[in-house]
Design brief:
Blueprint lengths: L7 H15 L6 H8 L3 H4 L6 H24 L4 H18 L1 H6 L6 H6 L1 H15 L7 H21 L9 H17 L14
């Protein structure tokens, strides 16, 4: 019988806090059960298994992240929107490290398609990039460039990987400047040629 007051939402929220405190890799059902003072088996009334819990955590964190990005980019376009998007991304990654790590896991495509948070992420990201005049397949390529740049930078920064005396924020700002120039001068894909069926 489910313990009174224990719900899937409470478990996921506690898992998110645990991830930030101890690291996403240390989010386990046993650790969560200890936090609530229950046996591991009690959690199975609310989540199927560890993968289910971590997926729910990833969706929660993804929703939080895009909410912060959306608020930052509202009313902005071009370089201002890019800088605001990047700044909100970096702030979340550095201040919510466990939650952020959860956003990097691979999610089943059916669950991803059903997630309003992930759909909103795509809408806001692609919308920002369309302001640069990009269309597919360039949009997808640009999204991959931004994600890999932001993620790589934040991962190195959080791990103390930048040892030079140069201010880390100054280098970040330069990276955003460079990305803006790149997006403005994107090497656009050649449109597909129509074939003559005659």
């Amino acid at each position: 019988m489910p313990r009174a007051g224990l719900t899937a939402d409470r478990l996921v929220a506690a898992a998110a806090d645990l991830a930030d405190e101890a690291g996403f890799e240390n989010v386990t059902l046993s650790a969560l059960a200890r936090r609530f003072g229950v046996k591991d088996a009690s959690l199975y009334a609310h989540v199927r298994n560890l993968q289910d819990l971590r997926t729910r955590l990833a969706l929660l964190a993804g929703g939080e992240l895009i909410d912060e990005i959306a608020a930052a980019v509202a009313g902005r376009s071009g370089k201002e929107a890019l800088a605001a998007f990047a700044g909100a991304y970096r702030e979340y990654a550095l201040t919510r490290p466990g939650r952020y790590a959860a956003t990097q896991i691979r999610i089943d495509q059916d669950l991803a398609a059903a997630s309003s948070a992930l759909r909103r992420t795509a809408e806001i990201t692609y919308g920002m990039l369309r302001a640069y005049g990009l269309r597919e397949p360039d949009l997808t390529d640009a999204v991959r460039l931004l994600r890999s740049t932001f993620h790589g930078y934040c991962a190195l920064e959080s791990a103390g990987g930048f040892g030079a005396a140069r201010d880390v924020r100054a280098s970040w700002d330069k990276a955003i400047d460079a990305l803006h120039i790149t997006l403005e001068n994107w090497p656009r894909a050649e449109p597909e040629k129509e074939t003559d069926d005659d």
